[in-house]
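lol ok so funny story. i was supposed to be doing the assay writeup but got distracted and ended up predicting the structure for this chain instead. priorities right. anyway since i did it might as well share w the group, maybe its usefull for someone
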Amino acid sequence: MTKLEIKDSKNYAPQVIRVPAPFALPNADRLVGLGIQGFTVITQKDGDIHEGDLAVFFPAEAQLSEKLAAGANLFRHNDLNDDQTQKGYLEDNRRVRALKLRGTVSNGLLLPVAEVERIFKVSGLAEGDIFDHINGAEVSRKYRLKEPAPRNAREKATMKKAFKRVDEKLFPVHIETDQYLRNEQMLSDDDVLIVSQKLHGTSIRLGNIPVRRRLKWHERALKKLGVRIVEQEHDLIAGSRQVTKDPRSLTQNHFYKTDIWTRKLLEVQDRIPVGFIIYGELVGWTPDGAPIQKGHTYRVAKGESELFVYRVAMISDAGDLYDLSWDQVRMFCGEHGFQHVAELWRGFKKDFDPAAFSEKDFFRTFTKTPGLAYSDQPVPLSPDSTGADEGVAIRVERGGRVPLLFKIKNDSHYLYETAQLDAGEVDMESAEAIAA
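and the output, tada:
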């Protein structure tokens, strides 16, 4: 039996797809384009991928495993391939790059299903299967410039013994935002979509949450005797996407010289009610004058940062999380002095046209297009931007505790991210995960 698993990022996991009809490319007689889940894959016109075939799609910035890259003879340096007479186009890092070819952006790679099945000695991969491991063997992962260094045994033992005030259950990390065009089939035509401007900064969590108290010696003694001792209190905690920032901790590592997450917490601490967690995007600059994201400072004054909220949740002492609806988020921000991300459109899925939000400078469009009915005024881009917003975020509320969150990113932003990685610039959130 074939066991398929996702152990890394779902957004970068390969998926079995049915190859669509190709479309012609300008000035490219030997190449054709394939539209797949909102991405374009450029492939050989007379290659081994044909309309109606099953193929495995790898999105841009996925990193193939050595086993797959060598087995499919994809390395440009042919001595790394299983068949050294064959030469591919992947560099030694096995990364799928976003490329602009003849004016069209290609942001994915396709392999015949039979090729993947041959390499991993399985059969029966079916349309819709999504995975990054087959029978325990890695197929691919999200490409990262650096992976977190594994802790040695002594460090692990020290970390295990260290007193931790914050329980992850009581300060949940950001949920991963799925690619909308890879997942839109899970939504019904009557689902209401709330579309907002996607800002490119760094994720931030701010909470006034239950934390563990460091018990005094006499409290520990009384506890052993069966006396009920209060072991929790509420306190203010910050976090990046994955890393918790306890202002009272003296042992934390940070990617920047200053901890911009805790700094923002201290700025707004009086506005966070007890039992609430705020999730948002932090844009602009560090106090040292470095951009939080190069080319995406959004005209924030140098040395300053701004927080834009996109999600607010209530957390119980037991760890039960309840999200506010989007309209409640808007009200919360108004009452407590926060900015929320700009809502652009709201309506039924059947009426949503992703192309209407593609490669737009939303602020410029809002100010230069008479009668355009964005719900809110978007945040203006910085002069050194790519010329278009990163894309849009999409929120779907179905009455559950946590909304469904999706995103659509522009081709121009994929090219921007590829150029960043080509230049060896570590994404801020990845760097934070490494430093933690």
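The two ends are 38 Å apart (CA to CA). The chain is about 20% helix and 30% strand.
back to the writeup now i swear
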